[in-house]
Amino acid sequence: MKSTRLILLVLLLGVAICFQLSAKPRPASGPEWQATEKTDSRGATYTQFTLPGRFVKRPHAEVSAPPSLAVNCEGTKGSRFSRVGFQGAALRVGANLKIDYVEPDEIRGMSYFPEVEAQYRLDDGKEERENWNPGQDKTSAFVPKDAIKKMLRARTVLITVKEDSAGEVEMQFDMPDATNLGQVCRLPVRKK
């Protein structure tokens, strides 16, 4: 009788171990918006939301970090200079971007503005082309508010820019839930 119980116990234990080994592992959670509290040069505090992406077509220059989107938002009025809501957004590539100097239609022959040609595709939609302002370091570009609004409602975003003296750089961002970002920045986001 005791040997029968022992055999059954060993069999049950063996089945439990086999079941655990054959169980599918949980998929690792994807990238998330990381919120960081920052202070600007005037002393105003703001929240920076950062989302890492991945290179589909890498830059020729060596880069130490993956591409990222950064969205800055003012959550509360902290000083007389602060604004509530969206402040700005940037695409960080890490390699020098090709900057075109464009003459605006309204100011013929007087000055040229630096711009980065950007193409982006939301989910499986149509590719959109825009000119974005370059960052001071020339390895990033400012993303217009309307473009960020569209991106926050998508599931995937594919962005292509040109590297200085090289080819195209292509980046993909898998857009996670952005409810917190939407509330702080007062921007519409995709519903879960």
Given helix and strand content, the structural type is alpha+beta
User: What is the C-level CATH assignment?
Assistant: Mainly Beta
The main sheet comes to: 6 strands, antiparallel
Distance between the termini: 57 Å
- CATH architectural group: Sandwich
What is the domain tally?
1
How many alpha or pi helices?
3
What do the pLDDT scores average to?
83
Find the CATH topology.
Answer: Immunoglobulin-like
Principal-axes geometry comes out as globular
Question: Would you summarize the structure shown here?
Answer:
The protein is of the alpha+beta class and 192 residues long. Helices cover 19% and strands 35% of the residues.
Report on this model:
By secondary structure, the chain is an alpha+beta fold. The protein has one domain (33-185): Sandwich (Immunoglobulin-like). The chain has three helices and eleven strands. It has helices at 2-22, 145-152, 179-185; strands at residues 34-39, 45-52, 54-57, 68-74, 85-92, 100-102, 113-122, 128-132, 140-142, 156-162, 168-174. Strands 3, 6, 7, 8, 10 and 11 form a six-stranded antiparallel sheet that branches. A five-stranded antiparallel sheet has the order 1-2-4-5-9. The relative contact order is 0.18. The model is unreliable at 8-27 (pLDDT under 50).
